Amino acid sequence: MAVQVSIPKGTRDFTTSEMSKRNYIFDNIKTVFKKYGYQAIETPAMENLSTLLGKYGDEGDRLIFKILNSGNYLNKIDEDNLNPEHIAEITNLISEKGLRYDLTVPFARFIVQNRSEITFPFKRYQIQPVWRADKPQKGRYREFFQCDVDVIGSNSLFNEFELIQIIDEIFEILNLKVTVKINNRKILAGIAETIGESDKFIPITVAIDKFEKIGLKKVNEELQKNGLSQDAINKLQPVLNVKRNTTESIEFLSEMLKTSETGLAGLEEIKTIFDYLEYFKPKSNVELDLSLARGLNYYTGAIFEVISDEVELGSICGGGRYDDLTSIFGMKDISGVGISFGADRIYDVLNQLNKFPNETEKSSDVFFINFGKAEELKCIEIANELRKSGYSCEIYPQKAKIDRQFKYANNKNIPFVIVIGAQELENNTLTIKDMSSGDQISIKNSELIDYLEKVQL
RNA sequence: GUGAUUGUAGCUCAGCUGGUUAGAGCACCGGAUUGUGGUUCCGGGGGUCGUGGGUUCGAACCCCAUCUUUCACCCCA
Q1: Superfamily covering domain A362-454
Q2: A206 in contact with nucleic chain B (CB within 7 A)
Q3: pTM score, two decimals?
Q4: Which of A173, A249, A289, A444 could form a disulfide with A244 if both were Cys (CB 3.0 to 4.6 A apart)?
Q5: What residues does CATH 3.30.930.10 cover in chain A?
């Protein structure tokens, strides 16, 4: 080969057919967001490192792509300091910008910076790529899209309920059967409190979060490794090893959390959400799942996760309430709740189940064969009329062999091909071929729109 | 970051214990068919075998390094 071309590790090109499928997902998600009054914002691909660093833990900091300063970025470097021990300080001197790692932290920055122009409660959605310097593997890329929808500046559990409605509506439109799992961080905190290990709350949530994946035994091992007493682990067993439906879980918790103020508050929140759901009756399963914890530690109240009932692929949507996200940027007491749809995983699920509608593949409704200058002019005239009526159509841009042009139309999945040659031009007719059946008929130019309506294109 | 794994034509892959001119299918181009695609037949172009080094009379094949692919862990969408 002449030149070796490639793209960076963990990134992808999207072909025309992949893009039409991706847009099918994005368009449907956006439509639903807008229907509930959420408005789009965008933030820059890069943020100041001071905005990003320290928000995702040490692990996260390592995964942020850093951007070299422009110009002579070495001019602040002292040669004596050039060794791996000083990597953090050196990084500070040569880089002050990084690519965004998620949409939530830039959103918090956005709120603080633009607070004077925002009407609270603020409902926004944001669909943009994010970047992580992770090692790529199955379902994990270095560049991927997040579709976030959040409402900030309102404590009401109505917002949690509305997000469940949105989840339910989107997956109904996409024709996917899903289960929405709900839990509450206050319940988890209450559990940690009642088993006497409040200070180990974070390791407990991290371990519980793995329950589905690694099973009870390994969760217990991990808890032990993190210094939980055997007594506490024993007390935790009934939470994990009994399968309960939502009602049973609520009963179980009201007994267990009797002595925990925080835990009972969380339970009340869960009850309120399920009361809303009594009226609304979602199509998806919505259940209280005590093993749901979510790794991200900025969540403080309700947490959500959505999994496909038909394909095992991890969570395809998740989120929760965070009471204090903007305080890291100096704006206190602003509570928010939001969820993020994993477009890449939803794509994989739809693809595996073959649930993309066929028309997402189609490029145009009608294709015109080009026979030469005179015929081409006629085609332009008819094509413009079709476009006015809402049909998409294209004319082959130059005279070429007929079979070549038909092949082109076939490869682009165009359902109808119109042939206007010397004969048709003379009689003011056109020949239209239905590419799926192979039938073709000759009709008057004026009958074309009627014909297309009849075949319900 | 730790441990495996992959790389041969645009794509998917064959290629024997190392042996001289590296193959197939699909795609592409031309023809059978100068107004008919998706099915048929014939022909054609396209590869310094990821890259660099080493062993050998001889390397796609063995050794080392490096990049890349995929996967598990960590973490996460």
Answers
A1: Anticodon-binding domain (3.40.50.800)
A2: yes
A3: 0.86
A4: A249
A5: 16-45+100-353
Q: Is A451 exposed, middle or buried (0-12, 13-18, 19+ CB in 10 A)?
A: middle
In the numeric block, which tokens belong to residue A367?
């294709």
- Side by side, the strands of the sheet bearing A393-395 are A393-395, A366-368, A416-419, A429-434, A440-444
Report the length, in residues, of chain A.
457
Element (H, E) at A351: helix A343-353
Q: Could you tell me what percentage of chain A is helix, strand and coil, using 3-state DSSP and rounding each to the nearest 5? A: 45, 20, 35
ipTM of the complex: 0.80
Instruction: Give Dmax (Cα) for chain A.
Output: 94
Grouping H, G, I as helix, E, B as strand and the rest as coil, residue A92 is: helix
Phi and psi, residue A399, nearest 5°: -65, 135
A345 touches strand B (CB under 7 A): yes
pLDDT digits (tens, 9 = 90+) for A123-148: 999 999 999 988 888 778 899 999 99
A348 CA, B10 C1': separation in Å?
A: 25
H/E/C letters for each residue in A27-42?
HHHHHHHHHCCCEECC
Pairing of strands A95-99, A46-48: antiparallel
Q: Is A322 left (phi over 0), alpha (psi -120 to 50) or beta?
A: beta
Name, in order, each residue with C-beta under 8 angstroms of A256's C-beta and a sequence gap of 6 or more.
Answer: A191, A194, A238, A239, A263
Locate A180 and state its tokens. Answer: 């929405």
The C1' atom of B6 and the CA atom of A139 lie apart, in whole Å, by 18
* Start-end of CATH 3.40.50.800 domains in chain A: 362-454
Dump pLDDT digits (tens) for A78-106. 766 666 666 777 777 888 899 999 999 99
CA distance A20 to A358: 11
Class of domain A16-45+100-353: alpha beta
d(CA A375, CA A368) in angstroms, rounded, equals: 10
Separation of alpha carbons A68 and A52, rounded Å: 15
Q: How far apart are CA A267 and CA A185, in angstroms?
A: 10
